[in-house]
Amino acid sequence: MNSHITYSDDFMIKETRFEFDNPSKTESLFTQSNGYLALRCSTEEAYCFQKRDMFVNGVFDKAMDDEVSEIANLPDIINLELYKNGKRICLHSSPVLSYERTLDISDGLLTRKIRQEGHSLTYERFVSMAERHLAAQRVRFTGSEDCTISIITGIDGQETNMGSQHFHEGVMRFFNLNELEMASRTVSSGVTAVISSSVKILLDGKEIGMKWAVDIKRRAIYLRGSIDVKAGSELTICKLSCIHSSRDAEGDGSSDDALRRSREEREVLFSRSFDDLMADSSAVWKRLWENCDVKITGNERDQALVRFALYHLLIMTDGKDDRLGIGAKGLSGEGYKGHSFWDTEIFLLPFYQFTQPEKAEALLSYRWNCLESARKKAAEHGFRGAMFPWESAWIDDGETTPLWGGADIVTGTAMKILTGELELHVTADIAYAVQAYYETTGDDTFMNEKGYRLIGETAMFWASFIQWDEDGSGHIRNVIGPDEYKEHVDDNAYTNYMVHHNLKLALRYKDRIGMKDFDEGLVRKAEEGLYLPQPDENGIIEQFAGYHELMDLDLSKYRSADVVGTIYEDYNMDQLRMYKVSKQADTLLLFILLAHDFSPETAKANYDYYEGRCLHDSSLSRGTHCLIAERTGRHEEAYRFFEEGLLTDFGSSLKSSAEGIHSACMGSIWQDAVPGFCGIEVLDGALSVNPHLPPSWDSIAFRLFYQGQRLHFSIAKEKIGIVNEGSKAVRLKIRGEEKILEGGCEI
Ligand code: BGC
Predict the structure, then answer these.
(1) What are phi and psi of 338, to 5 degrees?
(2) Among residues 50, 189, 324, 656, which is most buried (max CB within 10 A)?
(3) Which fold has domain 309-659+667-677?
(4) Going by DSSP bridges, is the β-strand pair 404-407/709-716 parallel, antiparallel, or unpaired?
């Protein structure tokens, strides 16, 4: 892997050297979060090129009128600078004898150990899984000579989102001899963030009262103090921070309430020790892993990297607030501005609905809570029903896709981003996800309260959107399909088939939709008349009308490039539309999502045709290719795509994850390992299992929830073991053979 980041055993990832020129990869990969509060892994002492970020899920803001709503970078709490006899301690201050930064993904503890000439330092940090508002840091210093250590640490609101400042100056104060508080509001959404820190000093394990000086600067408040430390003595600095916002689900929305909750909670939390708080957090982590772990034997690398993906899946959402989606980078960076895409419904939801159904329910309820703004978007465009935004932030932010992107190589100006206007399939993807969730969980309450209506509203949008030709055929024109290298296309196969599925569902559930303006006649007309491109004489389904007339292009240079998007260095969007080149899986997704509507031969023919024309320039691509290669019997290729997916973030490229990890890719890794290689799907009301493990795997074991029952699977090459840990029977199909597995029983 030739990377400075590696894994040491099943639950440990490790950075073996600090990358001064590219610290951001580790900052993203080693992100700590509980789904509410997130910290990128910046170091306590500052270095160039760092991107310090702290996010509270849901704190979105627009910095300026001409910008879109984005997840706001909160004031920094991590900063902690040490000076020895007046000289700043950092990795340059004296020769480094040993260095190691580890993230224990079993409990989220980050540890950095540095041995330098003259002293050694251990930094530890966690974001509590038990106390969602708490982040804790501990630094331990031991010197080889007597010295004076000066400490400067505080709350620093000078951090921005790549230059955009989201917070007003705010109110800062120092109190209780060692505590700081900053309360400030976002500039346009008016969300108040209350941040407070307490700093305690211990010498050889004994707390000592420190006489702090306080500095208040522009948007920053700092404690400053010095202490004499004898050679061999251990100085410990323990900083606990509490972060609350007026958008917290448990609050009443006011700033006063955020302040009150912050003060009440921190009084209790600040009186506790780092170890005690860590123990509570570890206990919650243990329970999370119990349901979600995937144990692979035979291939250590795959085991470690699948768990690394699971770690990120566990920290990107806590499922406790149904006004929040999942950002394309989770909470690990500013990339994609914290916005949610179809990534959630198609690439992430399967993991949650099978392992933590309550999180899947919260994510779909987020879409439900966005319904009014989706209806508004449809009405503004002259359509009926609900038209969901391509990029989504806070529930009433509406469409948040930015208008301008990277450079157009031909015109030299910024490219207009058209996805917010034209990439419409997300609306059908949401309906698809509702049905998939229902088939897996059997959650009638959700369906009655929200699910049927979501299916009805989305179907009404499509029924009013379809254009009719004189021959009575319905068409979906001027869209962008999943392949974003093609704009303004007509009858994108993926979109049309997914819309058709949406319309069919609405007709199936027509009596339960409970929507006043549901027009059954119009939906039926759309379902019957919508054009669905059929396989041609070679079995190929045309990606969109006119695709077959496009020219082929030699893609070898772009397919082998280290970074994605290099085709933009040679072609602009107008030119790209002339060629058979796609950014990511498009038509091929149909053979996964609607697999049983097509023959295996059609799936194979399309895989062979489209894969070679795809650049995999989106992290959403390889996982799909793995699944389809697996299902069409190309096991070696499937495994190759799986490996490439594993390395999307973990691989040696220093730049690819700088702005955050790829959350959909993490979902795909789970989908490839579990539904993919174990052949798991819900089929005709049964949970079907049909494994084909990669040659290097001896066995795989995991738990899934199906119809409310927890099932434990242990699959080896020749053997499938399933324990129904629930109390009710479930219908299974094991290698095609139907079986009923009673509660408490095993096969
Ligand atoms: C992909 C989209 C995806 C988005 C966020 C884009 O590069 O083309 O399909 O939704 O990234 O992950």
Answers:
(1) 80, 10
(2) 324
(3) Glycosyltransferase (1.50.10)
(4) unpaired
